[in-house]
Amino acid sequence: AQKITQTQPGMFVQEKEAVTLDCTYDTSDPSYGLFWYKQPSSGEMIFLIYQGSYDQQNATEGRYSLNFQKARKSANLVISASQLGDSAMYFCAMRELDSGGSNYKLTFGKGTLLTVNP
Amino acid sequence: DGGITQSPKYLFRKEGQNVTLSCEQNLNHDAMYWYRQDPGQGLRLIYYSQIVNDFQKGDIAEGYSVSREKKESFPLTVTSAQKNPTAFYLCASSIQVTGELFFGEGSRLTVL
Fold this sequence. Notes:
The complex is a heterodimer of chains A (about 120) and B (about 110).
Chain A: E1 4-5, E2 10-14, E3 19-21, E4 24-25, E5 33-39, E6 46-52, E7 60-61, E8 64-69, E9 74-79, E10 88-97, E11 104-108, E12 112-117
Parallel strand pairs in A: 2-12
Antiparallel strand pairs in A: 1-4, 3-9, 5-6, 5-10, 7-8, 8-9, 10-11, 10-12
Chain B: E1 4-7, E2 10-13, E3 19-25, E4 31-38, E5 42-51, E6 54-57, E7 64-66, E8 76-78, E9 87-94, E10 101-103, E11 107-111
Parallel strand pairs in B: 2-11
Antiparallel strand pairs in B: 1-3, 3-8, 4-5, 4-9, 5-6, 7-8, 9-10, 9-11
């Protein structure tokens, strides 16, 4: 079973509108972390936002917010007021303890390609 | 400036040759990771290491080998046993507490 599922291979949004990118996860580690990264066509990986499993409030960073629904095991990224420069691949990732129980590993989803239209 | 340096950025090799990709970090991070990225596959974990002289296999370790002799360095060798080595390889490091990954710029390997 996949640890991180991103069901939207591609998304389109009009400039200045908001968009939600979906992410669901699966883990038995009670102390996990969820991340979103952006990858422009240049290939660099840019950290956007982090949510810890025990955090009571949804994380926000500027125009990015994370809609964390723990019971549903979902961690959707919301981008408000989209800009042309937001066009990129977006990856959801989860940090959890590995099967040995003493090392952390990060697992990524397959990504969503966001295109912002003018 | 602190960061992660991967080299080379582009590499071409013939089938059957071993290749070593370099990854160096000066962020004083304990943990280091190697990922492989193929179109439509996202990032898949090859190997990771939390401390010097110790490392663990990730989800797709077959055909790869690593070493962690120094905290700053985590080189990846793509061996001739790797069936389909052409890919984009990303190295990352992280602080243990937060787990946020800091990535290098990647190495694109093409096997001819």
